[in-house]
Amino acid sequence: MQHIKHIQRINPNPENRFSQPILKDGLVLEDIMVENETKRKNESKINEFKNLCKTQNIREIRKYIKRNDIINSLNTRELNEDFPINEHRFVKRNGLLNLIHDANISTSSNEIVNGDIATQRALSFDQTDEQISLEALNEKVNKLYDFCAQVQDFLIQQFS
Question: Are 88 and 100 in contact (CB under 8 A)?
Answer without folding.
Answer: yes
